[in-house]
Amino acid sequence: MSPEETSNWKRFYNSFFGDPYWAWHDGLEIDALHKLTPEEQKEAEKLFLEAVNEHDTRAAVGLGELRSQKAVPRLKEILDKAVGKKLVDVAVALRRIEGDLSYAKYIIHVLKNHPFWDDRLDAAMHLREFDTPEVIDALFEAVKDPDYLVRNHACDSLLYLHGFKPDISLHKEIFENIIPPMDEGEPSEEDYKKYETAVNQLRKLFKEKEESE
Length: 213
Hints:
213 residues, mainly alpha, 2 domains
């Protein structure tokens, strides 16, 4: 095993099987997983299959990245047990392995119903992998989410799905309608009117692009 391969294995293993706090804080070392040798990836798949569960879905993410057909039965078993971000992870993994867009319904459920903003944010980010009318509708609705970061990522995903660079700050007039209120408190009725305006502005932007093509 070369020094580079050893380094990639350590990075991969520490990220996917080490302290979950650092995986959350720094993000998973996806590139290290993909840089493993074919033999190492087979070993990684074996470790993932042994570890995957509804409480720590880093292994589910890895199985999705490896497009592991062996993982499908187990991932389906935990699909209805996982909640929040973990449910998103499992649904995304299955979509990547099977190419089935119907798994979007689980992520839409998190986006619409989960009480924690960070889980809704994660759902808004990953829905860009599911280009369906139901996803588009859910993302438009999320532009009116009470949390700014959810609104921001919903906008970015909508931009991505409509062929734009996923950065709402590049569209100043729309961006100004989704930024937080000055006091950073709960959005007011006026704030929600601004969010609705942002939805209409996005629809107009996408329609103009479609008509120009």
